[in-house]
Each structure stands twice: as structure tokens, then as C-alpha cells.
């Protein structure tokens, strides 16, 4: 069992905080019942969760090996708009680098 807002975040719907807003707006249903309170627990294997009428499927874990070229940062975002590892991957993957390589290093990194 997992909290509903965490399930939505893990499914890529929104961040946990944004998921709380979506829940509070009454846009989420669990097993056909509208949920507006925080802390509701769901079982991703048995409960049917829908947002705006669309059934949400839990995402499995995804791991990838990426060749990081020189000049690319191993971070999720950069305020100075420099190239980041996420630029090399599809935007909807939302992966986090495991470890890091310096900006001027290149090599294999897992995300």
C-alpha cells in the first residue's frame, strides 16, 4: 500500500505536491469513488486509480546506461541552462543519474 499522492507521482502524473492539488480538486477517483482527502492509501496492483477519468497504470522501474559526453552535467536541472544528462533522454522518462561524472568527463553513467 502506498499513499495516493506518491502513487500519482511515481506514475508520472505530477509531483507529490502537485498531486495533492489534483486530489484536493476532486479530479482523482479510486475504484470509482472521488477522493479529495490526503493520506488515502492504494494498492497499485489491485486498486483502479483514475485522474480526469483516465485510468492510471503504475510505472515499473526503468534503468538505462547512458554515454555522457564532455560538457554535459549530471544533474536534473541547471539554472544556467547548460546541457544536462536529461537532454539526452526522452523528457517523459524523468530519470535520476546514479552518481556523477564531472562536466568535462565523459563515460558510462546509469540513470
Automatic annotation (TrEMBL):
GO function terms (MF aspect): pseudouridine synthase activity; RNA binding
Entry keyword set: Isomerase
Segments forming domain RNA-binding S4: 2-61
Gene3D superfamilies: Pseudouridine synthase I, catalytic domain, N-terminal subdomain, RNA-binding S4 domain
Single GO biological process annotation from the record: rRNA processing
Keyword Cytoplasm: no
InterPro entries, per database record: PsdUridine_synth_RsuA/RluA, RsuA_PseudoU_synthase, S4_RNA-bd, S4_RNA-bd_sf, TruA/RsuA/RluB/E/F_N
One Pfam family cited in the UniProt record for this chain: S4
The keyword ATP-binding belongs to this UniProt entry's keyword annotation: no
Family membership noted in the UniProt record: Belongs to the pseudouridine synthase RsuA family.
PANTHER family reported for this sequence: PSEUDOURIDINE SYNTHASE FAMILY PROTEIN-RELATED, RNA-BINDING S4 DOMAIN-CONTAINING PROTEIN
Protein name from the UniProt record: RNA-binding S4 domain-containing protein
Organism from which the protein derives: marine metagenome
Organismal lineage: unclassified sequences, metagenomes, ecological metagenomes
Amino acid at each position: 500500500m502506498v499513499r495516493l499522492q506518491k502513487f500519482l507521482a511515481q506514475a508520472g502524473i505530477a509531483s507529490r505536491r502537485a498531486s495533492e492539488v489534483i486530489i484536493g480538486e476532486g479530479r482523482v477517483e479510486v475504484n470509482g469513488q472521488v477522493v479529495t482527502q490526503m493520506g488515502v492509501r492504494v494498492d497499485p496492483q489491485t486498486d483502479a486509480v483514475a485522474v480526469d477519468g483516465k485510468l492510471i497504470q503504475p510505472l515499473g522501474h526503468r534503468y538505462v546506461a547512458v554515454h555522457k559526453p564532455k560538457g554535459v552535467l549530471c544533474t536534473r536541472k541547471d539554472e544556467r541552462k547548460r546541457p544536462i544528462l536529461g537532454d539526452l533522454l526522452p523528457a517523459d522518462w524523468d530519470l535520476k543519474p546514479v552518481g556523477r561524472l564531472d562536466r568535462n568527463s565523459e563515460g558510462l553513467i546509469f540513470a
